[in-house]
Specification:
It contains 11 helices and no strands. With 250 residues, the chain is mainly alpha-helical. The protein has a single domain, classed as Heme Oxygenase, Chain A, CATH 1.20.910.10. The chain is globular. Its EC number is 1.3.3.11.
């Protein structure tokens, strides 16, 4: 085993992971950005992505509960407020529901998550479980995909506004605040990792955590591609032209 990396070398290795594995490289993202998705593919993306967005504050709450330092908790809880809002109708989740509503979905149906793909559910829940069970340093490191999110958000918003008449700046308002929030959050997480991942095993673990998170994001797009580009929609998932199935009364 080689010796530990310097903090700068560790940061460079983390950024290489993003350059090689972040989901802005996925064919579905390129298709979405370039205006090649039909409206049902956009609807499927927004419906499934809601589950990821809705579970982020739950993931962050599990991380928060493991922090003994009040200063760290004060910093981390901003992530929860970003998504949940400070009052009803505020925050990232509410803004995502504005997008799905503009695409024809009822809030109740989206929030039920009944129409999402099995792979979406498995990937998101694996991420929440990872952050609950793995060492705190690794849980924090897994959030470092936020280092790369401003680029993908810029591509997504500009591409969707240019190519899809059924979206607007208002319906894409979730993304307005995210670059600033992601910069704040990634600055904190990167500083923590640089200061606390000091041994080579710790450094290898944080690199693996970031690779895992990239995989979580990538596999969700794999599932969308298979279901809605290639047409292999699994049982129980939303199908274009159909309403999201409601639960039958007992």
């Amino acid at each position: 085993m080689t010796g530990p990396m310097t903090p700068d070398a560790l940061e460079a290795a983390l950024r290489r992971i993003g350059a090689e594995r972040y989901h802005n490289l996925h064919p579905f993202h390129r298709r979405l950005h370039d205006g090649l998705c039909g409206i049902d593919e956009v609807r499927a993306w927004a419906l499934n992505r809601y589950y990821y967005q809705s579970m982020i504050p739950i993931k962050d709450a599990t991380v928060l509960s493991r922090m003994e330092d009040p200063a760290m908790r004060r910093e981390w809880r901003e992530r929860i407020l970003d998504h949940d809002g400070r009052e009803a109708g505020d925050g990232g989740i509410a803004r995502w529901l504005k997008l799905t509503a503009s695409l024809g979905f009822a809030d109740e149906d989206v929030a039920s998550t009944r129409g999402i793909l099995p792979a979406t559910r498995f990937a998101v829940e694996a991420y929440v479980n990872f952050c609950a069970k793995r060492p705190l340093l690794e849980a924090i490191a897994s959030s470092l995909t936020e280092l790369f999110s401003p680029q993908i958000i810029g591509e997504r918003v500009s591409g969707m506004l240019a190519h899809y008449p059924f979206v607007s700046r208002d319906t894409l308002s979730y993304f307005t605040a995210r670059p600033v929030q992601a910069k704040r959050d990634s600055d904190f997480a990167l500083d923590h990792v640089r200061r606390h991942a000091l041994t080579r095993p710790e450094q290898d673990a944080v690199l693996a955590a970031l690779r895992f998170k990239c995989d979580v994001l990538w596999v969700q797009l794999d599932a969308l591609w298979g279901a809605y580009v290639e047409g292999a929609v699994p049982p129980g998932a939303w199908r274009p032209g159909e309403a999201i199935a409601r639960e039958e009364a007992a």
